[in-house]
């Protein structure tokens, strides 16, 4: 298993380009299941999760052609196998995103029920309840969700989800675009990735309004057609590099991204003492000599994202003062704390709160990545720590960060992948 060796203590400086968003690309790839014509995507990040999703839909009968560095053409005219097997779902929970599109277009789907995961139980009952409200007949047998839409196909419904769920909203929106009549999703996720998916679906002929608000209206159409769509920039990758520069006292410029969807993160970095300049498609950050600790509380968009919690824990580890980090989305998303403590951090966990008191310096050690964003926080800590930090199990990192060691290298960091 690959490891990352980081020689810490160097401030990041320079410019890199941000990749397309993983959490926008995954649902948009599934949207290709909805039309029998070609969906032409650009700015698709080269990530493990993206290749897993491509393999999954390919075995369903979707024809896939890579184009250049970040283009993909998908054609699902030959869709014939509406099955998401356990072996694939267990490696990537986002596989559940095929359920809505398969039901809508193919009238049937068999999708392995995702199990628990490192950051929480993450059930999918909201996806199932919403689809049932649209008339789907669903039962779970031998670990698989068996779903059928019935002879007349899905029909529009008024759905109020019990909690804000990102992939739940995306799944229901994709099912509703081909359903008979109008669907209203209330308490919908407002995440920018939901909007990116809606924009892609609209360019395929879907009738959707309200994406980006908590009430989305979808008027079902008989069929969708081919389209071209460029995946939005990855706001979490953007935030991660901003944190890495901030923690190391660096100065960086990120291009092919914007601060538009990052208000909560940018506000906290400003509170920490960073200087940030936002351009139309670039962000520049200049860090102070030492950051001030900042407290955060994760919540659905537009509030502070849970996917940036671990990175902020890392920067607080070396900031001046103390901060409280409150995780409200996932029940077990502090696994990185014990690893950060191995590097010398002062962190006390009490249920969903972490109290972090900044220390003057961290010291390099061997640590283990437990999930994607936890890995990112260990990279940030490793960049700050004195001496060498060896991060094990970085396959987690490869799921969501494109060529991370290469990009960090461009910013002057000493990072090496050990195979
Ligand atoms: N939930 C339920 N039942 C459901 C659905 C969700 O109880 O039917 C709960 C979850 O257990 C969780 C909360 O609701 O406690 C929110 O979960 P959500 O469904 O919004 O998460 P998700 O859609 O599975 C997406 C991202 C995650 C990100 C979360 C929250 C994708 C592919 N994944 O997950 O991204 O953390 O939204 O913003 O979009 C990551 O990129 O590292 C990552 C984990």
Structure in a nutshell:
Belongs to the EPSP synthase family. MurA subfamily. The protein has 419 residues and is an alpha/beta fold.
Question: Could you describe the 3D structure shown?
Answer:
It catalyses: phosphoenolpyruvate + UDP-N-acetyl-alpha-D-glucosamine = UDP-N-acetyl-3-O-(1-carboxyvinyl)-alpha-D-glucosamine + phosphate. Its EC number is 2.5.1.7. There is one protein chain. The chain is of the alpha/beta class and 419 residues long. Helices cover 31% and strands 25% of the residues. The protein folds into 2 domains: 203 residues, Alpha-beta prism (UDP-n-acetylglucosamine1-carboxyvinyl-transferase, Chain); 209 residues, Enolpyruvate transferase domain (UDP-n-acetylglucosamine1-carboxyvinyl-transferase, Chain, Alpha-beta prism), CATH 3.65.10. Helix 6 packs parallel to helix 7 and helix 10 runs parallel beside helix 12. The chain is elongated and about 65 Å long. The mean pLDDT is 96. The site of uridine-diphosphate-2(N-acetylglucosaminyl) butyric acid (EPU) has 23 residues, from helix 1, helix 5, helix 6 and helix 12.
